[in-house]
Amino acid sequence: MARCSKMKPLPPFFFLFYFLVVVQFLSARSFFSMASNVTYNRRALLIEGKPRVLISGSIHYPRSTPEMWPDLIRKSKDGGLDVVETYVFWNLHEPVRNQYDFGGRKDLVRFVKTVAEAGLYVHLRIGPYVCAEWNYGGFPVWLHFIPGIKFRTDNGPFKAEMQRFTAKIVNMMQQENLYASQGGPIILSQIENEYGNVQSSYGSASAKSYISWAASMATSLDTGVPWVMCQQDDAPDPIINTCNGFYCDQFTPNSANKPKMWTENWSGWYLQFGGRTPYRPVEDLAFAVARFFQRGGTFQNYYMYHGGTNFGHTSGGPFITTSYDYDAPIDEYGIIRQPKWGHLTDLHKAIKLCEEALLSADPTSPSLGPNLEAHVYKTNSGKCAAFLANIGTQSTASVTFNGKTYQLPPWSVSILPDCQNVVFNTAQINSQSTTVEALYLNSAPQSSDKPAASSISSPSDWTFVNEPIGISKDNAFKKNGLLEQISTTSDSTDYLWYSISIDVNGSESFLNGPLQSNLHIESLGHVLHVFVNGIHSGSAQGTKISFDNPIVFSPGSNKIDLLSATVGLQNYGAFFDLTGAGITGPVQLRGQKGTLDLSSEEWTYQVGLKGESSGLYSSSLNSSDWVSLPNIPKNQPLIWYKASFAAPDGNDPIIIDFTGMGKGEVWINGQSIGRYWPTNFASQNGCNSCSYKGSYNSDKCLKNCGKPSQQLYHLPRSMVQSGSNTMVLFEEIGGNPEQISFAIKQVKSICGYVSESHPAPLVESELPFQKTTMNSTPLLKLECPYPNQLISSINFASFGTPSGECGGFSHGQCSSDRALDVVKKECLGLKSCSISVSPNVFGDPCEKVIKSLAVEAACS
Questions:
Q1: Contact between residue 450 and residue 458 where contact means Cβ atoms under 8 Å apart
Q2: Which one is predicted more confidently, 283 or 624?
Q3: What is the pLDDT of residues 423-464, one digit of tens each?
Q4: Nearest-10 crossing angle of helices 156-175, 204-219
């Protein structure tokens, strides 16, 4: 018989609490279980007739892995997003006409369902032209060879293919009931992409009819949700035209019946090989977002929220790096970037507190003075929200609003959800910051001063295969004249060999001296390597190459082998699809007395490398071609290398440091993680200090001057296995694979820097059914970034006038001697902690001075 204990009657509040928690749980589980009617009016998207303020972020499913998706989406939701936005990549899914691939990283349905499981909406940007710094703008190269085709214009063959693929994607989504009209998460779709930027080049009549056709075609697919066109001022009804750019507060839709929407707010910028690393200060990004909502916007998307990695040959450009980090709130490796993520999270909370007022009426704009703007939203019931902006860049402005005085820092917006209390200012950061480091494993070079982590087996047992110089495959062919590369290779490989033989007896007019001449080559790029009689005679790179080098012949027959390599195809601009590559000539031997033009002679061509054809990169291939020697050849061009390694323990993201290598591609267990090129250095100049104040552009804030544009490469955990793994490299220009090292990426320290003058942060109630509320005192908040971590040490604490940044704080002349003890008492041994930034806690080390609290902590 079971033993029973007598219980006291539960208080009535318990039942109310239990009921509300259960309702919340059930509503979360049934978030997309019922069909939703999605429409729009002049102010906002309406979901089931209710207008919504929606905050979105771009995550491109193939730029990460399915194993990463749930964590990325969870972090996006925690960051305050309502919507995840993604392009659909035509060339990824249909590499061969009518042959589709939706597996692995290409599993679009799985990605959309993963977003839905997190309770977020989806904006599906089908395009199918996407730009996106993606190879060929997302178009499959086979499209180029359809007779009579012309891209992105009123052209029958192109429209037929575009409609077929668009319908394919829509039908897939409908079959899985993924549109909101079917109970799914997709609330928006996009057709075309930034066509308005280039449409004048296609002729006004043809462009207009094409856009009209695209709009009609899309809406005829009956998705039950609105369609948008970005950067398309003449988007026909009912298509919503939207804005892309660093700022969209001044944007106005082309109809008074359409809402103001921002589909791409560029959180940073992309990186090119040979370029410096761009970044965008979060104060400016937050300023742009707040200004957009201040001036009537109701849907805003970050491009990117997680940028990710250009695996394989997916990067476009040309010369776009493997990394597509984009200075996004979640970095390439899936680690939250602080303080960008946290500051934007606080911004989203503040905006959501204003939602009811924002959607109820048009704002009034009381005058505050030069470079100052106020927008006030009021409901009929008396609720009020206000945005106060200082768009000047020089000094803080003191303004009077609603009978109170407010201090507005330059280039900032203050948000007052009740028209009285400032809960957020875009220039004042309350969220924590972090320092992230690569912890190198014992495979790092012995001379390295890089921080070391736990032990790992170094890449070992290196073997190699020499890639033949020139023609080595049976399917080589001869042709008179110089062939454009993309039309010849169909982008099936980066490489095309051009080979020719000439006889030299020493008396030719194209000679400059005894068996010497100058070789002149013109190429559309992107990389050129020249070999004469098997000897490397020079290289060049660019989108318009003019190569001039002296060469030396031998008496009799001489062989000239030219290796042309692409580094991602053009992805943007009018007629970008017609931008060629490869050696288009002339190719000439120039001497003191004459020139020999080889351009129209018979050339022998080889598409791709012999090692590619034989599948040397496959982890399952045990070719007898691999050679093992005590000392492998190094710093020589055209060599394949292979080694085994064991993956590091744990779940931290893995980095491969390609220091010592030249240029090439890497495969892990048969999967390409992309092109590497650590010898391509950024300019020494241009990395000056950057102020967030004033309009941002992609060249304003740069770092990494004088260093490799990309040295570290992301190896996703799902691409490695326990036990032995195989790494295969194709080294194009020469390197030393024994210098390759592995690292794991970890958050080293967490920091906070909050001033007394900062707005008091928004706090979440412990009860799940209560809304965010306003605090009264600024708080410094710290939280360990990983599960099961606790704050293990306080490395720095100062209340007064500290200076510096995370990892480099220092005490000022004014500093409380109680700060370190107070912070230790409040934070050590906890997952997170909050400390009031007030003299009541720390004492007052300097009266009549605005004081700040700076803390650096470590977690373990």
A1: no
A2: 283
A3: 999 999 999 999 999 998 764 444 445 555 544 446 778 999
A4: 20
The angle at the Cα of 301, spanning 299 to 302, to the nearest 5 degrees, equals: 155
Q: Give the Cβ contact number of residue 667 at 10 Å.
A: 21
Cα(76)–Cα(266) distance, rounded to whole angstroms? 16
**Buried b vs exposed e over 487-526: b needs ≥16 C-beta within 10 Å?**
ebbebebbbbbbbbebebeeebebbeeebebbbbbbbbbb
Same fold, 434-467+614-745 and 477-608: yes
- Of 454-468, 612-626, 644-658, the range with the lowest mean pLDDT is 454-468
Q: Using DSSP bridges, classify how beta strands 535-541 and 527-532 pair: parallel, antiparallel or unpaired.
A: antiparallel
Q: Are 262 and 297 within 8 A, CB to CB? A: yes
User: What does the pLDDT average to over 698-711?
Assistant: 98
pLDDT in the model for residue 461 = 87
Question: CA-to-CA distance for 670 and 672, rounded, in angstroms?
Answer: 7
pLDDT bracket for residue 765 (50, 70, 90) = very low
Contacts of 228 (CB under 8 A, 6+ apart): 188, 189, 190, 191, 235, 239, 240, 241, 242, 261, 263
Question: Options 3.30.70.1530, 2.60.40.640, 3.20.20.80, 3.30.450.20; which CATH number does 22-312 get?
Answer: 3.20.20.80
**Does the structure show a pLDDT above 60 at 4?**
no
Q: Give the distance between the most distant pair of CA atoms in the chain.
A: 114
29 pLDDT exceeds 50?
Answer: no
One-letter identity of residue 111: F
User: Distance between CA atoms of 699 and 688, rounded to whole angstroms?
Assistant: 11
User: Annotated catalytic sites, by residue?
Assistant: 194, 264
HSE value, Cβ hemisphere, 13 Å, CA-based, for 659 = 14
Task: Report the SS3 class of residue 181.
Answer: helix
Residue 191 burial by Cβ neighbours in a 10 Å radius (0-12, 13-18, 19+): buried
How distant is the alpha carbon of residue 46 from its chain centre? Answer: 29
Overall fold of domain 777-859? Jelly Rolls (2.60.120)
- Residue 127 tokens read as 């395009």
Q: Which pLDDT score is estimated for 763?
A: 56
Write down the CATH superfamily of domain 477-608: Galactose-binding domain-like (2.60.120.260)
Q: Categorize the per-residue pLDDT at 27 as very low, low, confident or very high, splitting at 50, 70 and 90.
A: very low
Question: What pLDDT does residue 28 have?
Answer: 40
Provide the CA 577 distance to its chain's centre, in angstroms. 23
CA neighbours within 13 Å on the CB side: how many for 651?
7
- The residues, ordered by sequence, that sit 6+ positions from 625 with a Cβ below 8 Å of its Cβ are 465, 614, 616
Q: How far apart are CA 126 and CA 178, in angstroms?
A: 14
Distance from chain centroid for Cα 284: 18
Which residue is associated with the tokens 């250009």? 310
Can you tell me the distance from the alpha carbon of 338 to that of 334, in angstroms, rounded to the nearest whole number? 12
**What six digits make up the tokens of 156?**
């029958």
108-158 confidence digits (pLDDT tens): 999 999 999 999 999 999 999 999 999 999 999 999 999 999 999 999 999
The helix or strand, by DSSP H or E, that contains position 54, with its residue range, turns out to be strand 54-59
Per-domain boundaries in the chain: 22-312, 434-467+614-745, 477-608, 777-859
CA angle at 770 for the pair 766 and 774, rounded to the nearest 5°: 85
Confirm if 487 and 306 have CB atoms less than 8 A apart: no
Q: State yes or no: pLDDT of 26 exceeds 70.
A: no
Whether the pTM exceeds 0.70: the reply is yes
Give Cβ neighbours of residue 610 (< 8 Å, ≥ 6 apart): 467, 468, 472, 473
Pick the CATH number of 434-467+614-745 from 1.10.260, 1.20.1270, 2.60.120, 3.30.70: 2.60.120
What is the pLDDT, as a whole number, of residue 775? 58
CA angle 839, 843, 844 (to 5 degrees): 75
In this structure, which amino acid lies at residue 99? Q
- Mean pLDDT over 210-214 rounds to 98
Cα Rg, the chain, nearest whole Å = 30
